[in-house]
Amino acid sequence: xxxxxxxxxxxxxxxxxxxxAPQPLPTNGSHAQAPPAGPVTRGSSRPERQxxxxxxxxxxxxxxxxxxxxxxxxxxxxPVRQGEVLALIGPSGCGKTTLLRSLNRLTExxxxxxxxxxxxxxxxxxxELEVTQLRRRISMVFQQPNPFPMSVFDNVAYALxxxxxxxxxxxxxxxxxxxALRRAGLWDEVSADLSHPALRLSGxxxxxxxxxxxxxxxxxxxxxxxxxxALDPKSTEIIEDLIxxxxxxxxxxxxxxxxxxxxxxxxxxxxxYLGDLVEYGPTEQVFHAPTQxxxxxxxxxxxx
Amino acid sequence: xxxxxxxxxxxxxxxxARLREPWSDRRAELVLGAVACFVLALxxxxxVFVFSKAWPSFSENGxxxxxxxxxVNQQLDTIQQPGTAEPVYTFGAFDLIWGTVLTTGGAVxxxxxxxxxxxxxxxxxxxxxxxxxxxxxxxxxxxxxSVIYGLIGILVLAPFIGKMISQERKESxxxxxxxxxxNWLLATFVLAIMIIPIMTAIIAQALRQVPRGWTEGAAALxxxxxxVMWTVSIRTARPAIxxxxxxxxxxxxxxxxxxxxxxxxxxxxxxxxxRPHVLPRADPPARRDHRLLPRGAREPGDRGDAxxxxxxxxxxxxxxxxRRVRRQAADEEVRNPHLxxxxxxxxxxxxxxxxxSTWRWTDRIALGLCWACGIALxxxxxxxxxxxxxxxxxxxxxxxxxxxxxGAVDQTxxxxxxxxxxxxxxxxxxxxxxxxxxxxxxxxxxxxYGRPAGLARAVESGVEIVAGTPSIVLAIFGLIIFQQSWLGxxxxxxxxxxxxxxxxxxxxxxxxxxALPLVVGATREGLNQIPGHVREASYAxxxxxxATIRRVLLPAVRPSIATGTALGMGxxxxxxxxxxxxxxxxxxxxPQGDTPVLGLLTGxxxxxxxxxxxxxxxxxxxxxxxAYAAAFVLLLVVLALNFAVAxxxxxxxxxxxxxxxx
Lengths: 304, 662
Ligand SMILES: Nc1ncnc2c1ncn2[C@@H]1O[C@H](COP(=O)(O)OP(=O)(O)O)[C@@H](O)[C@H]1O
Ligand SMILES: [Mg+2]
What we know:
A: alpha/beta; Rossmann fold; 6-stranded mixed beta sheet; 11 helices; binds adenosine-5'-diphosphate
């Protein structure tokens, strides 16, 4: 894997997208409702997926983040690869969100937050990049769906309209908006009325709209902070499939509380505990043969 | 548990509670409702009454009322002189309306643009050091009484502008028009300076209340800070910006445990036509948020990790795992020392490398304007406050505070300002003493009962109407009403039977209408902040609703009531129109008759504001040194009240109310 062509290969599957987009939901039985008794259901039979070549896009080195001097992330070094989904797991308050937000420098919006250590995007220190440029390349979807109080179309077109030096017209934007909505699996539901107010969509639709909004700007890395924590199982399923499909074109980092979800979607898993990175490895290994005691306890508890 | 029926199941307990509590629910509701209705009736009565009084003027003139015929002063004289013969109603309001439109329109247009830019600067672009000074300064300026701005305008700016008009131009109009510099431009300018701090405070507050999810969401898409402001924050805050005046009263929000629910909150905000509700606040949001929000919550609406997890079905294993992991962490540390080896060394704050080169040129201009407005605001604020302090210290001598004024025109002979100071104190105390019980009862009834809904809405609108009424209109209301012969005992009746209508009580009653909306607003805000489970806990103990209000809610909202009161005091102390029209505006406190207290109450007097007004060139005296000294004392009073509000807001956890007053 390490020997693969290094950057500047940005988007590997740019021309394959159209065929991926409108795929119907997988209908195999394992996706049906989970019986309440067993904690692991569809997760236990992790769907075999085609291997995608993985390239390292980002890397953190000895990353330390603190709020008002109190460390929340303590020296984490991690790679983020395109072609894979990286899941951050760990009990609440262990610094997952903080770590994720630091990747596109959103932590800088918190006045008390401080940082040490380095973050690289394609080998370049992100401190040297212009911050809006950086955030265009590394987009984020939040835990609470936060569509703007505008129409569906305006939401998806938002980044395209506001990022560039001049404002593209509606006609110009339309193909991009449609493509983003298709990739987020929302097109069929909203195509009839794109001027529908985004805040009147259901929670699951809102979250997919937020993903579409992030995708419309063609990011290279997509950060997802517990994107399904406020959603129903059906919407969760749609978003999980979406994440698995997306990983070919963008590097995906997902924070999740839900171990089964991490097991289902991730290729690599990082387990954090009280700000420390305890274990990082391929999903199968972290869940079935963890090297660390704490990982075993945390993961083992969830899998019974 | 249903909030409305706490006693439905526990009859014996409820009976017991009723024994101990003299107030039954029913009676409490009736009394509170009656007070609310009383206030509503007063307000409605005033409106109807004044309209009926104004009707002859309308019907006499027809549409030409809006024209420019007739004599304004003639009609005003007949109103102000009681007991004269048939009033003259030929009247054209064109000049008045045009004047209002010209000054207000100009000031508001300029003010909105300037304040929006200044507020954006304050919230987003100002360096931390400037922000820390500017935020309280703006709220202080917002509280400075208008008469002080007027004083500065007429004593400093008018001569300045007058000097700029060349001698030739003055001669060219041959003395027919006196070009002193008192003109529309100046009035508009002073008005603008006056409203800018208020509007800036309100808009900044509205901008701060834009949900973080939206601004961060936009920032996360790689949109620069100005465009985030412009496309998301200002857009969301726009209704608040336009309806700036009405801030301070939050229309019925669902109280209690839902208030902080993020999703619900977003939903509420999203409803078209609902304005985001703004309540200007004293303390910077960062400090407030961290104090009030649950651990782990980053924005109001985020309930913190702990709560969020509780909402989901409990995962029993999680806690156990967590505990086990913690227990074993220690062992593992020994075995894997490298895992904990990376102890962080004091991390630095990383600065955003922000390059304007990627910005659109319009954005760059806007950013420049933003900075310009912010700096201009800083300079104006500094100039006004320093100038007033300088003049005040220059002219204020301690003995002034203890000497009674005399009517002399000569400044060395005109005595001190004891009576105006006493007048301000009396009026403020009496006004708030009337406003507090009424306001608290109205707020309690609105939040805790509020049935029937139609009545509640009517009371709400009534209070809002009063809040939006200029005090001079209230003063005229008062004058017309108190000049009725059956209210003659409140002031004094002249020989011919004409009722004077001006006295300390009358002025206090009208002043209480200024403070009322602020007390109602702050108390409601406080009540809405109390989570529903607190009430339920009290009901669960078998307390009646009335007992809950008395023993639980009222103590909890005391800081809010105090905040509203202090705000109201600030506004009463700063008001001029009601003093001049309703207090009689006699230099000395002149009791009516010999009865000690009653005489004082029905007598006349003056306050600091009217003293400043009368001693400025706008009034009679032209004793500007005294005016400055009195204005400085007035400024100190307002400053002290402002400080009190800040302390109350900063100190109490239940109160999240406002520092904004006028
Ligand atoms: N804005 C903030 N101010 C101060 N402390 C914070 C802030 N955000 C998070 N923290 C603290 O940092 C730690 C990590 O938080 P977070 O990254 O949100 O954890 P997670 O997402 O894993 O639940 C927690 O102890 C939390 O209390
Ligand atoms: Mg989190």
